[in-house]
């Protein structure tokens, strides 16, 4: 009876776990769908409807996301800030349609970054981001300060669209390194030197290419992996030795109890 009860309890726990995972996935999909609807409505200037969808998102996000603890603190902070900007975009009467779409797109990508476990949508922005960056680099190589400043502004505007998503998907150290380089070329743009800026821009270009090609790349210290590997090997050997000793002891015990011996 105890065995049967244990089996039933195990099945119930497994079922509950699968049910919880399914509910969590359903909530994320619903939030992702609302974010997409808000973006599509914004593109067609149906701002009141977009506002209503964003408000529904806020209610559901609070009730099913925050209260049930489905998100990390970083995800909560980033998505809340991005949602605030999207809501501002559809309620500010003085904002251009292009700017509205940019802000709501940023929110939509952030919502997708939370719900996606593979190939998030922000990666599809690679062509746009790298195209604008190439214009910045070309202007620097040509020594054209006016074009450089203009193209840099456009690049920064494009980059901010994916920045909330990067905060969700990238390791903090990797994003900090990338943002510090972007901040540098923005802050010291007046000190234009072709040779110096070429080196800075090439370094930044490599980092941008890495985040799009390997967003989930693990940058852990190789020595750390060596320690983990060695520790795992020691644990396996220890368990194997303990199992062998137990098997040998049980065999000897049976042998000593054998009346034929």
From TrEMBL:
InterPro entries: Spore_YpjB (IPR014231)
Sequence intervals crossing the membrane: 224-244
Keywords: Membrane, Signal, Transmembrane, Transmembrane helix
Pfam family, one: Spore_YpjB
Domain of life: Bacteria
Signal peptide: 1-24
Protein name: Sporulation protein YpjB
Gene name of the record: ypjB
